[in-house]
Amino acid sequence: MLRANAITKRFGRTLALDAVDFEALPGEIHALVGENGAGKTTLMNVMAGSLAADRGEAVLDGRPLQAGSPRAALAAGIAAVHQSPMLFERMTWEENLALGGFDTGAGALDLEAVATRARSLAAKLGFEMPPAAATVENRSVAERVRLEVLRALSFDPRVLILDEPTSVLAPSELTAFLDLLRSLRGEGRIVVLITHKLAEAIAVADRITVLRRGRVVARTTPAQTTEEQLAGLMIGEIVPQPAASATPPQSGDPVLQIENLTLDDHTGRRILDRLSFRVAAGEVVGIAGVDGNGQTELVELLAGARHPGSGKITVLDGSSGSAMAVIPQNRDLDGLILDMRLWENLILARPLRERVTSHGWLNTSHAIELCGELIERFRIRAPGPETIAGALSGGNRQRLEVARAIASQPRVIVAHNICRGLDLAATAEVHRTILDFSAGGGAVILISSDLDELLAICGRLLIISRGKIREMNPGERDPQRLGLLMAGARD
Amino acid sequence: MLSSIAKPFAALALAAALISIVLAALGASPLGVFAALGEGAFGNWYACVDTIVKSTPLVFTGLAVSLAFSGALWNIGADGQLTIGAIAAGAIGPHLANFGHAIAIAIILAAGALGGAVWGGVAGWLRARRDVNEVISTIMLNFVAVQALSWVVHGPLMEPSRAYPTSSPIAPAARLEFYFAPSRINLGMLLAVVLAAACYLLLFNTGAGFELRAMGRNRRAATFFGIRIPALTFWVMALSGALAGLGGAVQVSAISHRLYEKLSPGWGFEAIAVALVARLNPLGIIPAAILFGALDNGSQAMQRTQGISPELVQVIQGLVILIILAFDTPAWSGLREQIFGASHDAAAVPPVAEMPDA
To answer: Is B357's Cβ below 8 Å from some Cβ in A?
Structure first.
C-alpha cells in the first residue's frame, strides 16, 4: 500500500500541499484529479522522491521512503512518468531507454538488447517504436510520452505514477493505453493516474481523489459520482460553461490561402504533401491529426521558421507575413524563453517588438508597461512584467502566449495544441479568447490531436494524416469516424 | 549566514588562506608575497597605469567573448581574431606617415577591426551556412592566425635589415601617444571603456541586442518568432571578431609598434575567464579585466622581489579566479547589482516558486 501522510509543501509564499493524505492499494487504479496548480504534480513528486516535503512522509508497505531521493523511491519500486517528458533530446531513443531498467547494467552497454526488450514490451502495449537510432529531438510529443512510459515500466515498478499521460495520446491510442493500465492493475501493481480528463478517470479508475488548492476535497469512486460533480469539486464553484458553440464556416472574405504546400525532410522523406486550403475571416478552422503527421512542420512553415520545398502561403488582404501569429505546441521549448522575463517573452513576437522599438532602440519601459497591461487584461497570475517566465505555472504560461498572439493584432492565429495540459477553467478561457478573436474578424487555425476540443469550437474541420490533408463536410462530425480518419484509415 | 557584503570578502580571505598554505609549503613568506602582489599591481601611480595597460587587451577580447556568448555562440577564437587585427594594423601602420595623426589612428584601428571581423565572420559564416560548430572553427582559425603572424614577420612584413623576425615599426602618426611619460597610459583603455558601454547598450537597449539574447537563451523559440538566426550569427561573430581585432590594433598602435611572434600571451583565452567572471555583462568586463591585469602585473613584481617562480604565479592566478567563481552566489549578484544597478541576467535572479493558476 502506498500512503502519503499529512504531506505539506510550500513554495515561497504558495502553499502547494496542505496536510494531504492519500492512499492507493495494490491492484488499484487510483485517479488523482484537480485543476492546474491544485498540487497533483507536487504530490507525485513527493511520492516519487523528486521533492522533499516540508512536513509529512510517503510510506510504501509500512516503510517510510527516504525524502527527496528519486533513487530510493525507484529502488522501493516507485516509477514516475512526468508531464513534460524528461528525455535527453540529443540522444537516441535506445540510449534514453538504456537509462531505464532495460539495460542489465552488467558490463558493456548493449543497445541492441535494450531495443529488443523495448520493442517486445511496446508490442504488448500496442505501441510502435521509432526507427532504429532516431534521436529524441525529432520525435513527436506523443512518441516522447510513450518512451517515458516504457522507461518507467522497464523498472518493473510496483507503483507507477503517471502525470497527465493521456493528454498527448490519439483517440486510437487511448483505448490501448487504458487497457494497459488495467493489465498493470491485474498484475497487482498500484497505478496512480493524474489527470483532469474526468471521463477518463471515471472510465478507468477504481477510486478517485480530488485535490483543490493543495487540499483533498473528496475521496470517491466512479460509481458514486459523475463528471459534473467532479468538475464542481475540482473548481469549487460553478463549472465554467464550455466555450460557446462552434463558429459558422466561411463567414467572411478569405484571409489565408495555402496552395500545394510540399515539404521533404533532409532524407527526402515527404513530410507535407501538396497541402491546399483557405481560411476566411471570422472562421476557426480545425486541423485534426495524430501528432507526428506533419503538424509541427506546417506550423514552422506558417511561422516562416522554415521554407517549403514548393507551394505558397499567401495572406490575402495585402498584408505581409507578419499578419500571422503563431502559438507553437511546446510552450516551454518553442513558445517561451523560460529564463527571460515576461516582458522579454512578450516582445519575442515581431510586431510587438517593432511596436516598442524605434530606430533600433528598445524602449524597455514601454515594453514593461505593455506587458503589465496584458497581465491585467488576460489575468495572468504573475507578480509583474519582470517575473521570469519559468516561474509561471503551465496555465499562466499559456495565457501569456495567447495574450502575446492576440496583442500582436494578427489577421490569422495559428495555434497548435494550445490546451494541452490545461485544466477545464483554463481551457474554457483560452477557447473563449480564441473565439472572441474570431468574432472580431480574425481567422484561426487550430491544430490539435484532441477531437473534443476541435468539435467544440471549430466551424470547419480538416484532417491531416501522413502529411496529406482532407476537408470534412460540415455534416461529418462523427467522432468515431473522424478518429479512424486521423489514424490514417481511407474510405 | 554571512551578509551579502561579507561573503565576497570571505571568498578573498579563503583564497588568501589557500595560497598562503601553498607559499608556506614552498618556504616563502605569504605576507611578503601578498604585499609584493598588491604593491606591484596598485602600489604607485606607475603600477596602476601598468595594470591598466595590461588589462586593456583583455577588455577588448572580453567584450568580444561576452557578446558572442550572449548569443550562445562559443567564440573561442578571440586570440586569432586579435592576432589578425594586429597583423592588419602592423601591415598598414608603416605606410601612414603622410597622414595626420587622427586620420592615421582611425585607419590603423579600422584595419584592425576589419581584420578581426573577417576572421570572426568566417567562423560565423561557416556556422550560419554550413552548420560548422564555431568552437571547432574558431580554434582552428586560431592556429592559422598564429602561424600567419609567424610567417609575415619572417616573410613579407619582415623589417628591411632582415636581422630580426619583426615587422617595420609603424609610422609615428599611427601611434597612440603615451601621456605623462614615462608612464604608458594611452587612449586605448578609454576606447575600451566606451566600447563596453556601447556593447551594454547594444545588448540591453536595442532590438538587435534583444534578438541576440533571445537566440542565446532559446534558439528554437527565436526561430519560431522570425529572428533570422543565420544572419544574426554571421553579424555577431563578425562584430565579436572586430572587437578582438581592435584590441590587437590598439596593442600595436600604442604598445608594441610592430609585429613579432607570439604577440598575444593568450589574451583571447584569458578573455573567456574574464567574460564568465563578469557574467557576460559588458560593464562587468572592465573590473574583471582589471582584476586579471592586476594579478598579472602584481605577480611580476612578486617574481622580482620575492623570487617566486613564474609557474607559481600562475598557480596563484588560477586559485584566485577559481575561488571567485566558486563563491559566485546570489550574494555576489547582490553586490554587483549595488555596483551596476539591477542585473539583466535572468540566471542571476533566485528562482521564484511556481505560482498556481486561477
So the answer is: yes
